[in-house]
Amino acid sequence: MRSGSWLLVLALAAPAAAQQPTPTGCTSPAHAQFDFWLGSWTVTNTDGATIGRNRIEKVSSGCAVLESWTDARGVDGHSINFYDPESGSWQQVWMGSNGLPLRLEGGADRPGRMILSGARNTPQGVVQNRITWTLRDDGTVEQVWETSNDGGDTWSVGFRGIYVRQEG
Q1: 92-105: per-residue pLDDT in tens?
Q2: CA–CA gap between residue 95 and residue 75 (Å, rounded)
Q3: Rg over CA atoms, the chain
Q4: CB-side exposure of 37: number of CA atoms within 13 Å?
Q5: Which residue, 76, 122, 129, 168, has fewest beta-carbon neighbours within 10 Å?
């Protein structure tokens, strides 16, 4: 075919591709279990001091939740979160500016609460991570990140943040 003919084929195919229906495979109740975390947030410690900002949004036609975090010093990180219907669990892959990924898996144990956990190999040994997000009665979300160095026998809180929805 001549280059002009190819351009005609592409021009005719483009409107057909643009008219494809929006995927509806990610509209189940399970896909909405993390929706309580959506929004733009100021994150404070338990004393009310700002420790960062976080924007949580649906992406990929609603099939994933994207986190864009910046702490008070300007250090950033991102996570992609999604419900995997094959495993029946939520997955998170986090990458911070330290270059160390964190992979978590879990799910909602009740409406408004998500618990994800996973292990990471470190020079000091295997560290278990467990992060819990809880929607509170006042509309804030509490995130608690716990770690265990002894296989989950004991846990230490490494991060506790209160997400306060930003106005506007």
Answers
A1: 999 999 898 999 99
A2: 12
A3: 20
A4: 32
A5: 168
Fold of the CATH domain 26-165: Lipocalin (2.40.128)
Provide the terminal-to-terminal Cα distance of the chain, rounded to the nearest Å. Answer: 54
Report the mean per-residue pLDDT for the chain: 89
CB 90 within 8 A of CB 70: no
Confidence grade of residue 167 (pLDDT, cut at 50, 70, 90) = confident
Cα distance between residue 115 and residue 143, in whole Å: 10
Q: Are 153 and 143 in contact (CB under 8 A)?
A: no
Q: How many C-beta atoms lie closer than 10 Å to residue 102's C-beta?
A: 19
Name the pTM for this structure. Answer: 0.84
CA angle 81, 85, 88 (to 5 degrees): 85
Alpha-helix runs per DSSP H in the chain: 3-18
pLDDT score for 105: 98
DSSP-assigned beta bridge partners for residue 76: 70
- Helix, strand, or coil (residue 37): helix
8 A C-beta contact, residue 165 and residue 141: no
> For residue range 116-132, what is the model confidence (pLDDT) as tens digits?
999 999 888 999 999 99
